[in-house]
Design goal:
single chain, about 400 residues, alpha+beta, Butyryl-Coa Dehydrogenase, subunit A, domain 1, Butyryl-CoA Dehydrogenase, subunit A, domain 2, Butyryl-CoA Dehydrogenase, subunit A, domain 3, 3 domains, 4-stranded mixed β-sheet, 10 strands, about 45% helix
Length: about 400
């Protein structure tokens, strides 16, 4: 099988690589390493530089601020960004989640208002789905939106909303018809975060990152705040989540860079006079890590090739990729932490005192919560069982 990218995409890779070499200054790298609010760094100025080059929306149609390029250009961009540990939190939700939803379901007025600033990297978005009694089972949401003349009035709360402390807009799942069946009667609304009645309280996860608990008390938004069809939000969401899971196809390079650094550490570090790399369990663990990484790469390329052939975001393939990343990714992060021992437990608040700048402590803590972001592994396994293996319910 030939894994060569198109010549134009490889030329683009060199352009991205040179840009990152210049723009990822020591200050930005230090900020990324010490960042405690976001697992993948937050830098609005850097995101705006990417937006000015059109790189946040590489595959979007040109009329919406994109470059109209093929999927392989986006994969190349993702690979170089992940390998360089570049900050992405200021734009990843807006460009990879909200933007595609607006393109598919938004009105022309919504597209003209929201898409250009997203493409330029000027606006930060947050997404409100999870509630105290509705995690993976989003059909159980209880936050209500009631029509009152030319407005909707929202009451309820959301849990674990990321990015909201810095967001300009809030993409929220609400129940607009409580009498309908569970998966019906749900709508998507777009809110300005400065709207009166929204209260944001910080929650700190075990890995030190900030998420938020959000309360809505008689929050009034205009009737055109609805994204897509009223009461069809759950079905819009299903397609949007699938599109989001088809983004970040270059993320395997971050894991590869981590693995390469771990190998160097094992070669340089001696225990009882012998380098760590000489121990059989270490060699086996590193080999398994490499196999995991290669399979992650192949799964990403499979999704990319299907997208490039003109199909929608492939739900079966993204589910397999999701299971692989969530379940097996945790195992290899644990291996790295076992390998580093007590030194691997030094936190990212003091990264200069830990091997590889406390990267593995950060990876380990983040992998626990990360296994549930965007749906639990069990939920993805159900999709694989039903849609890939054809097993009965």
């Amino acid at each position: 099988m030939d894994f060569k990218f198109p010549e134009a995409a490889e030329k683009f890779r060199l352009e991205v690589r040179e840009f990152l070499k210049k723009e990822l200054t020591p200050e930005i790298r230090d900020e990324y390493a010490h960042c405690t609010d976001y697992p993948h760094g937050f830098n609005k100025a850097f995101s705006r530089k990417l937006g000015a080059k059109g790189w946040l929306t590489i595959t979007w149609p040109k009329e919406y601020g994109g470059l109209g390029l093929d999927v392989w250009h986006r994969v190349v961009f993702d690979e170089e960004m992940a390998a360089a540990h570049a900050p992405v939190a200021a734009h990843q939700v807006s460009a990879n989640f909200v933007g595609p939803a607006l393109i598919h379901y938004g009105t022309e007025e919504q597209k003209k208002k929201y898409l250009p600033p997203i493409a330029r990297g000027e606006t930060v978005w947050a997404v409100g789905m999870t509630e105290a009694n509705a995690g993976t089972d989003l059909a159980s949401i209880e936050t209500r939106a009631v029509r009152d003349g030319d407005e909707w009035v929202i009451n309820g709360n959301k849990m674990y909303t990321e990015h909201l402390q810095d967001a300009d807009y809030y993409w929220v799942l609400v129940r607009t018809d409580p009498s309908a069946e569970r998966h019906r009667g749900i709508s998507i609304m777009v809110l300005d975060t400065r709207t009166p009645g929204i209260q944001v309280l910080p929650l700190w996860t075990m890995d030190g990152y900030r998420v938020n608990q959000v309360y809505f008390e008689d929050v009034r938004v205009p009737a055109d705040a609805i994204l897509g069809e009223v009461n069809r939000g759950f079905y819009h969401l299903a397609m949007t989540l699938n599109t989001m899971r088809s983004a970040g196809l270059g993320g395997w390079t971050e894991s590869r860079r981590d693995l390469e650094d771990l190998v160097l550490y094992c070669k340089a570090t001696k225990v009882n006079g012998r380098p760590l790399i000489a121990d059989e369990w270490v060699k086996n663990g590193l080999a398994e890590f490499m196999i995991y990484n290669q399979i992650s790469r192949l799964l990403a390329y499979r999704v990319a090739s299907m997208l490039e052939n003109g199909g929608p975001a492939p739900d079966k393939e993204t589910a397999v990729r999701q299971v692989w990343g969530k379940v097996y990714g945790q195992l290899h992060v644990k291996f790295a932490c076992d390998l580093l021992g007590m030194a691997g437990q030094v936190g990212h608040y003091s990264p200069e005192f830990a091997p590889m700048f406390a990267r593995w402590e950060r990876r380990y803590m983040g992998s626990i919560a990360g296994a549930h972001n965007g749906g639990t592994p069990e939920n993805a396994l159900n999709t694989v069982a039903l849609r890939v293996l054809g097993l009965p319910r």
